Amino acid sequence: MSSVFLTIWRKEMIDAVRDRRSLMAAMSYALFGPLLMAVAFLVLIKDVVSERDVRVHIDGAEYAPALVEFLESRRILAGNDEHPAQDIWLTIPEDYQSRLERARPIPIIVRSDYSERNLQSQRSRLESALREYNQTIAMHRLTLRGISGEVIQPLRVERQDTATKGSRAALVLGMVMVFVLMSVFFSGMNVAIDTSAGERERNALEFLLAQPVATHILVAAKMTAAATFAILGGVLALLLIPAVFLFVPLEKLGIDFAFSPMDQLVIALTLIPLALFASILQLFVSFRAKSFKEAQTYISLVMFAPMAAVFALEFSRFEHPVLQLLPVTSQHHVLFSTIAGQPIAFIPVLIGGLVTLLLTGLLVWVVTRMLRSEKVVFGL
Fold first, then answer.
1. Phi first, then psi: what are they for 89, rounded to 5°?
2. Cβ atoms of 88 and 56 closer than 8 Å
3. How far from 361 is each of 220, 329, 344, 346, 350, CA to CA, in Å?
4. pLDDT in tens, the chain (380 residues)
5. 3-state DSSP call for residue 76?
């Protein structure tokens, strides 16, 4: 039985390797995800860390020279011909000095398109500087009246961040690790479609089923061939993520991205049941479809469900003990715990893997029964 299984698996692997489209699709997604996130983090770090000059339109700068000088100390400058101002206008009224001397409120207008995200950080810096200047004037007024400025500050909140570098890494890099799970689903997708709907269109499936081979062995071999590509895609993503992020200065965000070979090995072993489950699920959908193109469409829709679940967990940070026992979510929990440097509860991990394998076995049984129907074999 094992020799028959290996023969069919070897045949499917040879066919998949010969199809360069499937091979490139399997490997490219694992490479694309880490590179995309690395570029995104480079842009984020440049925007957060850099203190570039903010150029704004200042109307009435001559009425408040002290305010303009204060803004310049915060690198908020008026635009000129050499450095044009952005679409942010600061309007200072003509009666600024008289209102200031009479301790009357001074209407300062900040005008901009607040729906434009590109100017969000610049607007925030301008408004923060105005609030700081406003507080400075209030403190000086109290001091001139013989009142301590601490009167208007009954509470002094001191922020003490107890977050570790690992927990910060989990908060920021969790989205990066989602690409590992997505690589498992997408790397073996083309192989699963080709070995099912593709072979049926080439009239090779009928020939295979006519051989003296048990149908469940045939299904298991096809599933394992697709799962081999799936796990290779996941492992490739695991190897590329630390290599790519060596060139990203995450330390500027207070993040220490430590990803040891042992962590990679644990995650890779955790992904094996998920790769088998993803592959048999794709085979099931492909055999239900009538043609190769229809199988591609259906699988794209089906793959959206587990990915949507992972993204929902990543953004909402929702936690429940049951999620550690389900396919996809249990593997996501292992990834998140590994990045955060948290100890991994191996009992839930084992149970989650067993549940994934049980569902995989159930789908193998369902696909085996499907292949006994002529409608499925001939795509009727």
1. -115, 130
2. yes
3. 9, 19, 26, 22, 16
4. 578 788 878 877 887 777 777 677 667 777 777 777 777 767 766 665 555 778 888 998 888 888 889 988 888 888 887 878 888 889 999 998 888 888 888 888 899 888 887 788 788 888 888 998 888 888 888 787 777 767 777 777 776 656 565 566 666 666 677 778 888 888 888 888 888 877 777 777 777 777 777 888 888 888 888 888 888 888 888 888 777 767 666 666 666 666 677 777 888 888 889 889 988 988 888 888 777 777 778 887 877 777 777 777 766 666 777 777 777 777 777 777 776 666 777 787 788 889 889 999 999 898 888 887 777 676 65
5. strand
Question: Measured between alpha carbons, how far is 194 from 10 in angstroms, rounded to an integer?
Answer: 15
- Bridge partners (DSSP) listed for residue 55: 77
Extract the tokens encoding 136: 């400075």
Helix then strand then coil, % of the chain, to nearest 5 = 75, 5, 25
What does each C-alpha distance from 186 to 17, 270, 357 come to in angstroms? 16, 17, 19
